[in-house]
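Hello again,

I reread your note about wanting to compare the complex against the isolated chains. To keep things tidy I'm splitting this into two emails, and this first one only covers the full assembly. Below are the input lines as submitted, including protein chains and any nucleic acid or small-molecule components. They are followed by the predicted structure of everything together. The single-chain runs will come separately.
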Amino acid sequence: MTLTGAEPSAATVRTRLRAIDADLHHHVGDWAAIGRHVPAGLRWRIDRPGGPPLARHGFRKVGATHGAAPVPASADAGSRPHPAGDPAWVKAHVLDARGVDLAILTGDLLSLGVQPNPDLAAAIAAAVNDWTLETWVRPFACYKGSILVAQQDPAQAVAEIDRLGGDPGMAQVLMGSASEAPLGRRAYHPIYAACVAHGLPLALHLGGEGAGTSPPATAVGHPTTYFEWYGSLPQSYMAHLMSMITEGVFERFPGLKVILYEGGVFWLPHLLWRFDKNWKSQRSETPWVKQPPSRYILDHVVLTTYPLEAAPDPTYLHQVLAMIEAERTLLFSSNYPNWELGDPFDMVRDVPPSLRRRIMVDNALAVYGRRRLASQADPPA
Amino acid sequence: MARHVVARVEDIPPGGRKIVRLEGREVGIFNLGGAFYALKNSCPHQAARVCLGRVVGTALPSDVYEFRYGQEGRILRCPWHAWEYDITTGRSVFDPNVGVVTYPVEVRDGEVAVTIA
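Full-complex prediction:
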């Protein structure tokens, strides 16, 4: 880790960081340890060996779950340690090995917002947040956490953001894009107010679509296979973005930044220009939408690189990166350990050199804020 | 540059309009409560005959979830794609840099005259 001290100068940060990973999925699986952070009333639902009851969709990856991601050696023939289960091992074999100085932890609980029981979901979120701080963030300066919230009860989500929003170990608020309703709805606005109050970006991560109280994962009904399900997920972001713009979220919260994880980027130009064109004819229905929708999107929304679409010609990628103003809207993400679609560094191989530094470091500093990314603790000796 | 008498005042009552042809282009003359305005009958979007559109009001820019309808009788809505223009300025309601071409109008001795530059 290259950062030390509470307030390194901006110039120091710029020159020393090599790469920031916006999306490292540390494994949330030690439910006995997590359960210790849950009040007794609900602890017994959570600290069981198999973890809490979680409504899931039926889709599972086929083939190699983690692709060619580095995996810890088994201690014995029967055990299969999780590749993102040990923060020291991940630091050494992923971050240090790949030249990444800082990783934002996103966990692997991406369907809390569509769990039927809002109180259980909120308790799990809070406990996971405490556990992440204790086991990953506090001992290792190379990790920053995400304040995981469950949006089906916005009041409890706001309380969690207020509880941890001032913690220097937390870099963002995280909720699943799987949601009972489009995220522009006014019931969710208090969550956005809390994000802005604490200067935290809002990360949306797909993955729970179709589980629990979620609508079907596609607009035309339930997919049949994982292949179909995973490929369809960007439509979740498209619907949420249209909802947030038309319901005036960025007018009401001009400081809000939204990060859309793991949805690719090639779909965005379509949305920008379809939406702008329609707005000229249809704006009177939502007169608070005062700017062309593309301006709200490009000024407030950020995307991540994994899994960048595999365009058959690199010039196609260059064109799309120009269309989405990637010099300020794209963050490098490893998605570790889920490398079944390829190596995240290979995925950004065709990014033009002029954008590389922005995508690997500068954009993350701008979105998260330099102060947030400054380490709050030195790594253990 | 020429000045064209296009109507007598009583030919275009308040709320009314008249389309005329001047120097090769159509021009719409609108009477808004006694004040006259002239717009080129061509929408900057796709050249629709915009002056044939409905004269309406519009939803004014507002706070989120606030509805303020106003400018009744002052907004011209293009019949093709509903782009809306302020008749008094020609400017679209969504972008001040987008607008219908306007011409100066003068009323003298009961006659309405449009000047084409």
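For quick reference: The mean pLDDT of chain B is 97.

B.
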